[in-house]
Write a structure and sequence with these properties.
The protein is α+β, with helices and mostly antiparallel strands. The chain has 2 helices and 6 strands.
Length: 160
């Protein structure tokens, strides 16, 4: 399987997926090792560090982005022009907290596709099978911007 960096634009310190561990037709399973030295533990909560729920959700959304990107690349059609962007979050249910040293297993599943919108479900559990969260979410496929010609330079005007 390809490295996660080939499928999502996120990079440290805002990447919350370490690796892809399984892929199905409309599913993907990923892993995140929650390192004790993460900066967010310094302030959430000092003396009793807990991973912020929004970052656990982000790990699901990044896993969904990876799955959708992989599907688009495999389709070899005009979908490669698009980037999946989070558009909706529904029914988030937190089941337990995540502590430093936990290993998260993240499952995402494509439920429905409507044009350039995809609706997915996600769940997270620890490697020792403790349920952490469930969430439903949607992504919109937006067109990628053309790369800049040079740092800060404007593209050349069209030749008449």
């Amino acid at each position: 399987m390809e490295p996660i960096e080939q499928l999502i634009p996120h990079r440290p310190p805002f990447r919350f997926v370490d690796e892809i561990i399984a892929v199905g037709v409309d599913t993907m399973t990923t892993r995140l090792r929650v390192r004790p030295e993460e900066d967010f533990f310094k302030g959430h909560y000092p003396g009793n560090p807990i991973m912020p729920g929004v970052l656990i959700c982000e790990s699901v959304f990044q896993s969904g982005c990876a799955m959708v990107s992989r599907q688009m690349a495999a389709a070899q059609d005009d979908l490669a022009r698009y980037t999946p962007v989070l558009a909706r979050i529904n029914d988030v249910k937190f089941k337990s907290i995540v502590k430093p040293g936990d290993e998260l297993i993240i499952d995402v599943r494509l439920k429905e596709r409507l044009g350039r919108f995809m609706f997915l479900s996600g769940s997270v559990q620890t490697a020792d099978h403790r349920k952490v969260l469930t969430v439903n979410f949607g992504v919109a496929l937006i067109e990628k911007e053309a790369p800049a010609t040079a740092a800060g330079a404007s593209p050349a005007p069209p030749v008449p």
